[in-house]
Amino acid sequence: ADDPGGLNARELEEDRRQAAPRNLLYNAGEALDQQSLGLAFRKKFGANRELMLRNYYVQRDFTNRLPFDVNSNGQGGSVDLDRKVAGLGGNFTWTSELGSHSNQLVIGFDYDAQRDHRQRFANNQGVLGDLTTNQDEDVTTTGLYLQDVLSLSDSATLTLGGRFDEVKYKVTDRTGVSGTGQRTFREFSPMAGINWTVRDAVNLYANISSSFDPPATTELANPDGPTGFNQDLESQTATNYELGMKGLITGSLRYEVALFHIDVKDEIVPFELEGSGQSFFENAGSSTRDGLEASLSMELARGLIGTATYTWSDFVFDEFRGVDGQNYDGNRIPGIPEQLFNIDLSWSHDSGFFTTWDALYVGSFFADNANEVKTEDYLVSNLRTGFRWGSEKWLFEPFIGVNNLFDKKYMANIRLNASFGRYYEPAPERNIYG
User: Fold this and answer.
1) How far apart are CA 346 and CA 302, in angstroms?
2) Deepest of 166, 354, 377, 417, by most Cβ within 10 A of its Cβ?
3) How far apart are CA 251 and CA 172, in angstroms?
4) Rounded to the nearest 10 degrees, how much is the dihedral formed by the CA atoms of 327, 331, 333, 335?
C-alpha cells in the first residue's frame, strides 16, 4: 500500500486529491506478509460442565517507508519488522444450582508471547540507507480471570468478575548503544453488573467495571533516541459506570439506550515531535468521558428494515500538561465528535432483489490537544443494490454500489496533533464499485 500522507490546509485547498509532497519524495508506503494457524478444542462433561482450549501462531513480515531519511532523534525512516506471536488459553464453565438459584462460574487463563526483531534504516528518498536501529522487542502477557453469573430470581441476574494481567516488555539492543531495558505492568480489573427483565419490552441493566490498557510496542517508541523504550509512558486505566435499558416491542421494534461515565487515568495520547516525522505517545494525567448511546431497529414494511443509531460524547481532559509544556486542562479530547448519527434502510424481496441505503452524520471535533484546529461536520451517504440467486450448490450475487452518493467533500481520517499542520486525509469523491 502506498501512503499519501496528510495535507495541510493550503494543500487541501489547492488539490485535495494530491499526495503529500514529502510522501511522494520518499515513496512512503508499506508491505505486509502474514501467515496464521490456530486450533480450538471444546469438550463437554455432562450437561453442566464444559472445557475450551485454544492456541495459535502468527508470523508477520512488515516493511514500511516513512517520509523522512533520519529524524531528529536518530531513527531511520525505513522499518523492517520480523514478528512471531504464539499464544494459548482456556476456560472452564460450570453451571450449577445454589439453593433454588441457577449459577454459572467461568474460570480461565491467557498466555501470549510476541517476539519482534525491529530494524530501522535511513530512507534515502525511497532507497534503503544506513542501519540506525537494530533491536529485539519481546512482549509476554499472562492473564487470569473469573466470572460468576447468579440468577437472583426469574427476572434478575447478578454478574461478578475480575481479571489479573501481567504484561512484560523487554528490549535488547544489538548495536551496542545503551538501549536495552524492560518494563512490567500489572493490574487487577474487577467488574459487577445486574440485569433486570421487567418484561420483554423493558430490560434494565447497570454495570461498574474497570479496564487496563498497557501501551503497545509502537506506542513505547523512544522519543529520546533511536533505540530502547519510552520509560515515561504508563499504562492507561479506567473505571466505567453504565446504566441502560433495552427491549423488544410488538416483535418488530428493538431499542437500546445506555448512559455511561468513564474516569480515565494516564490516557495514552499521540503527539509528533517537530522534525521526527512519526507519532510518539504520552500520558494525560486524567480525563472524563460522559456519553449516551441509543439505537432503534424496526421492520417498516415487509422486507424493509430501518435502523438508526445515535451517540453523544463529552470527552474532556481534566489534568494534562503535555511534553511540550502546554496546559490542556479542561480541553476536549481530539478526534471524538460530540454528535454521531447513522441511519440504514435495507430492503430485500423474495425474488432475490435487495437494496441498502445508509447515511452517516459526523459532527465537528478538534484535531489537536490545544483545541485550536477544528474539523467541519459532514453527512455522507452510500447506496448498494443487487440480486441474489441460489441453489443447493451455488450462490450468484451480482451487485453495484455507489459510495459518497452526493459527492461530499469530507475527511476520511484526521491525523491527531500532526506536525506542520498536516492533519487532513481527504476521503474519495463519489465512487462506484461492483
Assistant:
1) 11
2) 417
3) 60
4) -110
Give the C-alpha separation, 138 to 28, whole Å: 27
d(CA 163, CA 175): 39
The tens digit of pLDDT for each residue in 82-117 reads 999 999 999 999 999 888 899 999 999 999 999 999
Amino acid identity at 87: G
Task: State how far the Cα of 227 lies from the Cα of 175, in Å rounded to an integer.
Answer: 9
Give the integer Cα–Cα distance in Å for 199 and 259: 21
CA angle at residue 83 from 55 to 412, to 5 degrees? 100
pLDDT of residue 35: 98
Which residues pair with residue 271 across a beta bridge?
A: 280
Grid cell in block for residue 260: 455511561
Q: Please give the pLDDT value at position 277.
A: 60
42 contacts: CB under 8 Å, gap ≥ 6: 50, 51, 52, 53
Indicate the residue type of 101.
H
pLDDT 10s digits, 276-333 = 566 788 888 899 999 999 999 999 999 999 999 999 999 999 999 887 888 999 999 9
Residue 349 is which amino acid? H
- Alpha helices per DSSP H over 225-308: none
